[in-house]
Amino acid sequence: MSTDLVELAKRRGFFFQAAEPYGGVSGFYVYGPQGATLKRKIEDSWRDRFQVQEGHREIEAPTIMPEPVFEASGHLDTFDDMLVECPECGESHRADHLIEDNTDIEDAESFPLDEVGDIIAEHDLHCPTCDTALAGEPVEDFNLMFQTDIGPGSGQSGYLRPETAQGIFVEFSRLKEYARNQLPFGITQIGKAYRNEISPRKSIVRVREFTQAELEHFIDPEEDEPPLERVADVEVRLYSAPEQQGDEGEYLDTTVGEAVEEGIIASDWVAYYVGVAQEWYERIGIDMDRFRFRQHLAGERSHYASDCWDAEGEIDGDWIELAGISDRSDYDLSKHDEYSDEDFTVFRQYDEPQVVERATVDPDMSYLGPEFGGAAGDIADALQSLAERDRSAFDGGEVTVEADGESYTIPVEKTGFTVEEIKESGEHIMPHVIEPSMGVGRALYTVLVHSYERDEVEGETRTRLALEPELAPTTVGVFPLMDKDGMGETARDVAADLRTEGFDVTYDDSGNIGRRYRRQDEVGTPFCVTVDYEGLEDDTVTLRERDSTEQIRVAVADLADILADLRSGDRAFTDL
Ligand code: ATP
Fold first, then answer.
1. Residue 106 scores a pLDDT above 90
2. Which of 251, 278, 362, 363 is the most buried (most CB within 10 A)?
3. Measuring CA to CA, which residue among 10, 5, 27, 46 is closest to residue 471?
4. Does the pLDDT of residue 49 top 70, yes or no?
5. pLDDT tens across 5-32, in order?
6. Judging by beta carbons within 10 Å of its beta carbon (0-12, 13-18, 19+), is residue 199 exposed, middle or buried?
7. What gap in Å lies between CA 479 and CA 488, rounded to an integer?
8. What DSSP designation does 393 have?
9. How much is the average pLDDT of 84-89?
10. Across the chain, how many H-helices and E-strands are there?
11. How is the chain split among helix, strand and coil, in percent rounded to 5?
12. Binning pLDDT at 50, 70 and 90, where does residue 271 land?
């Protein structure tokens, strides 16, 4: 079925492979005249649900960032997929996908490299391109980031961001000022991300340039709680990690509230966004019988995540990941705090000032200098941090610290170690981050697959996209019954007036009326308006609904209000 859809997508301008005049390039797609509008409307709907309704704010950061950002974030070291290359044809394959496609193993990504190599050999897996045996071929980590040089000459090394999130984390110190240093607050970003996927596939599902819609919700993990009651009754289908590992592998149909009470979703915050995501995917027209939340297995989680539930949609019997809802803990902010000169903490005021004991050192530099030379400064810093961490280390006559990979032992009397009582009005804490991260292209693709229908109308098979009116690229098609006797002019006026009212309108006067309806059905236009002879007499038009093909007569003067209600869902066609 998705093959028909991909053909329709290309023919009717939803999406198609980029740069085809030059042979095309794998993993890059163009959203055409229908698709770009559908995509923008999905983004608008996401922005409404995850940003406006939640009271968050949006930013737009660059897509290229300097290397130190990704050293700190861990992407340089760990943002890898498993690569196995065919010794015969040279084609590169993602080793874990090869295993998942050809064996019963579902979570190959969670195995270490050497085991993956063993599984390829045990199952005698072959190259999907030329059928050469891959047993014994090395399985290697391949970093997915696109590298580039910033500026001419040797320049500065940079990377195209593999997720929009880092653009938010890096700017945290400034963003917290805009939030008046108050947690919790959320920052969203919708933008391009780039991953040099080993083998792009399944049309726009796995590409090398794609759009993410991400929310980074910064919270105080001890004090802040989500408004769980707002989504407690939302029904969800959960596929937990223990169920995936057990023999039965059953789904649990439950509510968000119960999932939290029974500890199935450990974090209230993750559960909250599971509820919000469920509502949103339903709103954009994903078939809820082909939708679930699957918990990540321990070995599958990203380097930054402490828990993660993926929203998944079913397409042709395969489950694809639509979104990840992760508890990223304080991983990213701590790393940027450590690697940069900025402060990534937030000051938490106590209700009452508190008297606390603070251990400090005041090292005798006239001893450290001559004794340890250039290392003396680093040793002094190491002593201070040790005093804060573990004051019992100063209990004996000597204390040992590490500085620049070397161990140094210093008499305690030379460290100036003291414990003093001070009054503090608050403390610096590292916020935690809850992140719903959605792929816009995957949402769009799944919406199209789930809304693709074939039925029979007037003895003919018709193809129809049952898109939600909120998302359809064209909200209303306007036709004259024939372009004569003034019907063409009136229909053009109706179309122009509706455009002024902010509707996406397609005007069409070519071919018979049945064919014009079919064309709009195929691109998911929910409503069509036709000007006929009767309408010329009494200022009315016929209004047709796509799915039922029912038609009613409405006054031109009421048309815009009726269409606005139908698009927002405030009124149903059957209530007119
Ligand atoms: P996968 O396991 O499918 O590679 P991921 O777990 O690496 O995805 P995340 O890092 O969680 O994905 O990214 C968040 C979202 O971005 C995904 O849920 C998906 O919708 C989207 N996404 C990720 N990689 C791609 C890609 N190569 N093409 C299209 N969308 C993508």
1. no
2. 278
3. 46
4. yes
5. 999 999 999 999 999 999 999 999 999 9
6. middle
7. 8
8. G
9. 93
10. 19, 28
11. 40, 30, 30
12. very high
Strand partners for 214: 189, 437
Distance CA 312, CA 214 (A): 16
Which residues does 566 contact at the CB level (< 8 Å), separation at least 6?
A: 469, 526, 527, 572, 573
Q: Find the 163 Cα to ligand 1 centroid distance in Å.
A: 9
pLDDT, one tens digit per residue, over 199-250 is 998 899 999 999 999 999 999 999 999 999 999 999 999 999 989 888 888 9
pLDDT at 182 over 70: yes
Read off φ and ψ for residue 116, nearest 5 degrees.
Answer: -65, -45
* Three-state SS annotation for 366-384: HHHHHHHHHHHHHHHHHHH
d(CA 144, CA 150) in angstroms, rounded, equals 19
Residue 18 near residue 27 (C-beta atoms within 8 A) = no
- At 98, the pLDDT band (50, 70, 90 cuts) reads very high
Distance from the alpha carbon of residue 321 to the mean position of ligand 1, in angstroms:
7
Testing ligand 1's pocket by substitution, the residue of 442, 445, 446 carrying the most ligand atoms inside 8 A of its CB is 442
Nearest by Cα to 244 from 327, 329, 312, 323:
312
**Atom 16, ligand 1: which residue's CA is nearest?**
439
Residues with CB under 6 A from ligand 1: 163, 195, 197, 206-207, 210, 212, 321-324, 437, 439, 441-442
Tell me the best of 199, 205, 321 to mutate to test the pocket of ligand 1, counting ligand atoms within 8 Å of each CB and taking the most: 321
Instruction: Measure 406 CA to ligand 1 centroid, in angstroms.
Output: 42
Q: Which residue has the CA at smallest separation from atom 28 of ligand 1?
A: 206
The β-bridge relationship of strands 505-507 and 476-480 is parallel
Instruction: State which H helix or E strand residue 173 sits in.
Output: helix 172-178
Helices 365-372 & 376-389, crossing angle to 10 degrees?
120
Please state the rounded mean pLDDT for residues 40-55.
Answer: 98
Compute the average pLDDT of residues 474-480: 98
CA-nearest residue, atom 12 of ligand 1: 324
Atom of ligand 1 nearest to the CA of 214: 14
CB atoms within 10 A of CB 411: 12
CA of 441 to the centre of ligand 1 (A): 10
What is the residue-wise DSSP string for 419-457?
EEEEEEEEEEE--EEEEEEEEHHHHHHHHHHHHEEEEEE
Question: CB 352: neighbour CB atoms within 10 A?
Answer: 6
- Burial string for 374-388 (b: 16+ CB within 10 Å, else e) reads ebbebbbebbbebbe
Instruction: Supply 400's token pair.
Output: 């040992």
Backbone torsions φ then ψ of 109, nearest 5 degrees: -60, -25
Residue 33, pLDDT above cutoff 60: yes
Q: What is the mean pLDDT of residues 302-317?
A: 87
User: For residues 244-264, b (16+ Cβ closer than 10 Å) or e, as one string?
Assistant: beeeeeeebebbbbbbbeeeb
CB atoms within 10 A of CB 342: 13
- Whether the per-residue pLDDT at 331 is higher than 90: the answer is yes
